[in-house]
Amino acid sequence: GESVGLHLPTLSVQEGDNSIINCAYSNSASDYFIWYKQESGKGPQFIIDIRSNMDKRQGQRVTVLLNKTVKHLSLQIAATQPGDSAVYFCAENVGLTGGGADGLTFGKGTHLIIQP
Amino acid sequence: NAGVMQNPRHLVRRRGQEARLRCSPMKGHSHVYWYRQLPEEGLKFMVYLQKENIIDESGMPKERFSAEFPKEGPSILRIQQVVRGDSAAYFCASSPPLRGPAREQYFGPGTRLTVT
Questions:
Q1: Staple A3 to which of A11, A35, A111, B4, CB 3.0 to 4.6 Å?
Q2: Looking at beta carbons, which pairs linking A28-31 to residues 24 or more positions away fall under 8 Å?
Q3: Nearest Cα residue in chain B from A109
C-alpha cells in the first residue's frame, strides 16, 4: 500500500505486505529529517533519520528515502506486522549551519492500519 | 537508562487555574524541547531550552505560557489562567549535546491537559 502526500490520513495494508508512507516537506533549507511512530496515548517514538547529504538509509525493516529535488520523503516498512499499527509522522529541521530554529516541524501524520 | 520522563501524565484544571508540567530529560541530555499536540494533528514546536537558558521560544504563545530549565531539577512548562483551548497533549523531548547538524530528539509519554 502507498499513501500520497499529507492528504491521505489513513493507509490500510494487509499483514505481511510492504507499506510506503509519503511525506512532502516545504522548507528547502531543511537538512535533517526524522520519522516517528506514535501509538495511541503515547509519545512519538524515533524510527529512523536521514540527513540531506543522503538519499537513502536503511534500518531494521524500515527504509527512508529522500528526494530533495521534489522535497519528498518516504518511509518503507517491510513485511508489515500488527505492531506497526500507529500514526507515522515525518519531521524536518533546519540545521545549525542553516541558521534555522531548533524545533522540529512535523507533518500531519498518516494512520497505518494493518488488516489480518 | 530511563527515557524522558514527564509528570503528571494527566492533568485536569478549571478555567483560570495554573498548570505546571514537568519534564526530566534522558540521562546525559542537556537540551529540552516542548511540543503541543491537538487531537488528530501533528506536534507543534513551542520552546527549546538548555540548562538555565531559553534558546528558542518562537513557538510559544506570548501570554500565559512560560518555560524554564533550572540548573537543578526538571524543566517546567507553566500555563497561567488556563482556557479550554489549552486542552491538548504536551510532549517534552530531549537530545544529547550537539554533534553536527543533527538533532535526534527523544520524546516522553506526554502530559494530557484537560481544562474544564
A1: A11
A2: A28/A68, A28/A71, A29/A94, A29/A98, A29/A100, A30/A92, A30/A93, A30/A94, A30/A98, A30/A100, A30/A105, A31/A93, A31/A94, A31/A95, A31/A97, A31/A98, A31/B101
A3: B42
Residues on chain B touching A51 (C-beta within 8 angstroms): 101-102
Give the pLDDT band (50/70/90) at residue A9: confident
Residues of B within 8 A of A34 (CB-CB) are: 104-105
B110 — contact with chain A (CB < 8 Å)?
A: yes
Residues 32-51 of B with CB under 8 A from A: 33, 35, 41-48
